[in-house]
Amino acid sequence: MSNVGIIMRRELASYFATPLAYVFILIFLVLANAFTFYLGGFYERGQADLDPFFTFHPWLYLFLIPAISMKLWAEERKSGSIELLMTLPVSLPDAVLGKFFAAWIFTALALALTFPLWITVNYLGSPDNGAILAAYLGSLMLAGGFLAIGSCMSALTRNQVVAFILGVVACFAFLLAGFPLVLDVFRAWAPQVLTDAIASLSFLTHFESIVKGVIDVRDLLYFAMLIGFFLLATAVVLELRKAD
Amino acid sequence: MIRTEHLTKHYGRLAAVEDVSFQVGPGEVLGFLGPNGAGKTTTMRMLAGFVAPTSGGASICGHDVAAEPLAAKAALGYLPEGAPSYGEMTVRRFLAFVADLRALAGSQRAARLAHVIEHLQLGAVLEQTIDTLSKGFRRRVGLAQAIVHDPPVLILDEPTDGLDPNQKHEVRTLINDMARDKIIVISTHILEEVDAVCTRAIIISRGRIVADDTPAGLAARSRYHNAVSMQLEEPQQLGVARAALAALPAVADIEVSERDARLTALPRAGATILPAISALAARTGLRFKELHLESGRLDEVFRTITA
To answer: Do A242 and B50 touch (CB under 8 A)?
Structure first.
């Protein structure tokens, strides 16, 4: 098995060694369903789709994903195990990727456990399952983006609470960039190009088009590049500050 | 072969390690000594590739730590200070994880794991999580992960810290067993350890090497080297004995401890005083409970050099 795989497996097992994983999954499922039925009006809309479910994912992830990513590197620093890991014959990219993939797979698992909703909507009507699959993919990409940002924030500190707060703030900035509230401020004076550039950086812009069932290569590329950028940033931060 | 050349590490304006150069060959057990904060751990971290030097460089078995980090790390077994590990893992899983990253596979992997588990007596705690282990066991788990791939070079940062005397003895035996064909560097502030396991000692103070010698060579720098220490049977003879010793031309100084009627006669540079003192005993009728020749006191040398 490759080093990425070995590190990923260890990391995944460590999630389930503590109650953290179970608590996280439970809260994620409860909140996801609560949002869907109460805020999203799943029944009242009278439409057989999962829009009310996916619409709230960015907000759900805003707080839950940094809770996963905060421990990625901060914990290694705190306990000193980073010195062990970094002196084993493992390259830094392997370690960064292994940990990131473990967190991503864990999130994917939590997301997959929302399948009863999918069964429900299929029981109640005949939804566009292709669109639902696309939305799941979009949600997973969104989670990956949040996790990559969180990984970078976690690498900056040895304190998990600080890592959490930095993660929420950074993710919030990326979410907010697509909001009319923010964009209108720029629209008033900035050239269209700049407004578009800011909007194009936002999670929401790209996420919403995927959730509508439109898989555009550009949206996928956006998330892939975002993840790549922040993982690279994680590696750079670690290289500079791993022993601090 | 471990080679460092002008290894230097600055943290801001603080020079943690300054121009450290040395070589260690197979069969050598190098003790790295120094007061807390002298730069021992920083030097070891640079050797292990965890901290990048400000200038200078190090190589492990011909692999430059900066240019070929993975090859250098593969040749190295490293016990970081405090033996950090993953607390939520069981000992078995943790060692298996390290063995996997060390690219051990198949029957060799199983044999090496069995070997370290047996030698470090971890059999009883294999299924326990590392968090629940005592300090001594954690240290042994750290040692086990350092030697699991049978590396030609071992760097151990305070391997016996926190162990009880029995465990210390076991670890020293283990190090001595491995010493024949390996290069071992240990850091310690326990001076008896230097005598017990090291063939060579480097003393580092304020980031600089201040002594590089064999333990015997270091002891010879002591003012107690070739001193004669004696304990009198009758404490009231202390004054007589002291006067008789002071009359000997080769004796430079005398230290007296009234509590246990002990005298220590220090020789002039290069002089031998034991025969003269034995003769003195016969001549004056002084009776000794104990009389012995000192080889030198490492703690005294250590204090003199690093103060």
So the answer is: yes
With tokens 């989670």, the residue in question is: A143
Strand, helix or coil for residue B252: strand
The secondary element (H helix, E strand) that includes residue B113 is: helix B106-119
Instruction: Please check whether residue B97 touches A, CB under 8 A.
Output: yes
A90 near B CB under 8 A: yes
Closest CA to B51 of B23, B91, B31, B80: B80
Contact A155, A238 (CB under 8 A): yes
pLDDT in tens, A176-233: 877 777 777 777 787 888 887 777 778 887 888 888 777 888 888 989 999 999 999 9
**Hey, of B17, B43, B100, which one would you mutate to test binding to chain A, going by the most A CBs within 10 A of its CB?**
B100
Report how far apart the first and last C-alpha atoms of chain A are (Å, whole number).
Answer: 31
Closest to B148 in 3D by CA, of B82, B49, B46, B78? B78
Q: Choose the closest CB to A17 out of B45, B88, B98.
A: B88
- A84 min Cα distance to partner chain B (Å): 7
Contact B82 A80 (CB under 8 A): yes
**Tens of pLDDT, residues B140-167:** 999 999 999 999 999 999 988 878 888 8
**What are the backbone dihedrals phi and psi of residue B296, each rounded to the nearest 5 degrees, phi first?**
125, 150
Bridge partners for B205 per DSSP: B208
The answer to whether the pTM exceeds 0.90 is no
Other Cβ atoms less than 10 A from the Cβ of B119: the count is 17
